[in-house]
Structures are given as C-alpha cells and as structure tokens.
Design a protein that fits this description.
Elements: H1 10-19, H2 29-42, E1 46-52, E2 56-63, E3 69-71, H3 77-80, E4 87-89, H4 102-105, E5 112-119, E6 125-133, H5 141-165, H6 175-192, E7 196-203, H7 206-213, H8 215-232, E8 238-243, E9 246-252, H9 256-277, E10 285-291, H10 300-325
Antiparallel strand pairs: 1-2, 1-6, 2-3, 4-5, 5-6, 7-9, 7-10, 8-9
Helix pairs in contact: 2-5, 7-8, 8-9
C-alpha cells in the first residue's frame, strides 16, 4: 500500500480548511443533496464529500457508508488532492498502490474510486467529492463531466460557508465564525488539559472618529485594527470582529499572564502605527482578559460575558483621569 504524499502547500491548505469552521459539524441538507445526486446519477453505492485534515479524511456528507472518517494514511482522497484532475482507480485490486489497502481488503471493499478535488475560493484543495463502487468500473466522459459539475456545486456551498463566517469588511472571522471555531477550540483544551485565555477588545472613541472624519475613515480604522491583529497574534490564535467596534481573540495554550504580554505587544504595534500614520487621531482600545476555567465557563458565551465585563471595567477606569481633568 502506498500512503498519500503531503502537498507542498500543506500548511496553507490546512489553515484554509480550519478557517472554514466546517470540520466536525453536523450533516447539512445542501451537501447531502449533492451526494445523493451523485449516487443516483452515476449509479454507485457510495458518494462522499471528504475533507482532509492532518490525520484523517472526514466526511461532511456520506451516502452509502456508515463511518464518518478514516485515517488519512489509508485514504484515497489523500491521493486525489495532490492533482488538479479527477483521480481515478478503475480496479483497486489491479493497482499496487491500493491492492492491500485496508479499505480494499476489508469493509467497504472498494474496487473503484473516482475523486474530484474540491477547492476553496483561494484555490487551496480541501478534499474531494468522490464516488466509490464495490465493482471495477471504467467511467465515460459523461460520467466524469457530471462528477466535475457536482463538485463545482459542492465548492459553491463551501464558498457560501466561508462568506457566512467571515466579516466582509475586515476579512477576519465574524461572530458566527468565531463561535463555531471557539467552541471546538475549548473542547480541545478541556480534552488535553491545556490553558486558554480570551481577550475582549473595544475601540475607544470610535464614534468620534466616524463623526469627525466620516464613516469611510471609520471603516479604514476597523480594517487597520484587524490587520494588526493578524500580524501580531499567532497563527494558532482565533481572532474575530464580533460586530461594530468590538473584537475578540481566543489564545489556546496561553495562561492569562502570557496573554497580557501578547496584548501589550499588540498595543506597542498599534502605538507605532499611530506614530507613522499621522491621520489626525489615534486608534486606541480597552480590553478585558479572562483565563478559561472549565468549571466556571460552561460555554463560550459565559467566557465572552466575563471578557466583556472586564473590558468595560478597563474602559471605565481609563476614562477617570479624563473626567477629573474636565
């Protein structure tokens, strides 16, 4: 058996896949409808929307198969994402790469496989729409064209998922995207007994910038702030615009004291930007930092509430000198 190679752009590919917040989500009719169509149109017993992460192929949609995932090492789809065209294995028993594959010699006894790579809007390959039979097959051009058409439908649905979880203005996660990813992150922290901290941020005097300089300038402030978040925080951190001028960052494997150091680094980056920009105003923010406690924070909502409360406490304290000077 030949294990699938790792794509050269694997890191960027996985980052794109994670950003979609689609892994380990419940079945959705919009994807199931396409796999049912593939099964019926192409006359196969099994059709899958398969997504490839570090260690497995996970099925977003699955018709004709009871399992929800398999190891990446034995996956056919791991081979399919290495190319640009449909990956076809007419008869697995006649192919030395797959003849002794556990999925061939055991359940589901794959004899035929065809997988069309699925691409994210940025071009990264996420997985495949694949069809499987327990008999050898030699698909014709019409069958392959139908598989490509159906794969394009899956790609459009994936693009819709991404648009629904990204903030249109800043390009980072929106509230929906954050809630989906953060919930998965916290479950992982609990399972592996690792720390996590949440930073809740709110821009100071943002309304004044809008009123004095116009809403287009306000939009520019939000975009600059989001870009600085991306450039300062780690790739493993999850940051999002929650709405208006509120931002939030979840830092896995990070106790509160370490999070405070990272926020201070971000504050210095923002200070440098203000010094270089000369826009007639400074971008500033208040923040609340809370360390995740599984006993106290039973959901991401309770963690956000604590962060929000600490942020407003910080904002109130920062206003006091200004009030005294009036």
């Amino acid at each position: 058996m030949k294990k699938p190679d790792i794509p050269q752009d694997e890191h960027a590919r996985l980052e794109t896949l994670r950003s979609l917040s689609i892994l380990d989500t419940p079945p959705e009719e919009r994807f199931d409808r396409i796999t049912r169509m593939a099964k019926r149109l192409l006359g196969v017993p099994i059709a899958l929307v398969s997504l490839i992460d570090e260690n497995r192929q996970w099925f977003k949609s699955c018709v004709g198969l009871s399992s929800s995932e398999t190891s990446r090492e034995i996956s056919f789809c791991g081979h399919a994402i290495l190319g640009n065209e449909i990956f076809i294995v007419p008869d697995t028993q006649q192919d030395e790469r797959f003849a002794d594959n556990p999925l061939v010699v055991g359940d589901p006894h794959i004899r035929f496989y065809a997988g069309c790579p699925l691409r994210a809007p940025n071009g990264q390959k996420l997985g495949t729409l694949c069809i499987i039979d327990r008999q050898p097959r030699n698909p014709g051009n019409e069958d392959l064209e139908a598989l490509e058409d159906l794969a394009s439908m899956v790609e459009r649905e994936i693009a819709a998922v991404q648009l629904a979880t990204l903030d249109e203005l800043t390009g980072i996660s929106n509230r929906r995207g954050f809630m989906m990813q953060a919930d998965q992150n916290l479950r992982l922290c609990v399972r592996h007994n690792i720390s996590a901290s949440l930073v809740f941020m709110d821009l100071n005097k943002f309304k004044l910038i809008n009123d004095k300089h116009g809403h287009s300038e306000g939009d520019r402030v939000l975009t600059v702030f989001a870009d600085l978040l991306k450039n300062t925080f780690r790739q493993s951190d999850l940051y999002a615009r929650m709405g208006g001028d509120e931002f939030v960052i979840l830092l896995p494997d990070t106790p509160k004291k370490s999070a405070e150091i990272i926020v201070q680094k971000f504050r210095q980056a923002l200070k440098k930007h203000n010094g270089d920009a000369h826009r007639g105003y400074d971008i500033d923010f208040s923040n609340g930092i809370v360390e995740f406690s599984p006993e106290k924070h039973l959901s991401i909502d309770t963690l956000l509430m604590d962060g929000d409360s600490l942020m407003y406490e910080h904002k109130h304290k920062s206003k006091r000198p200004e009030m005294r000077s009036q």
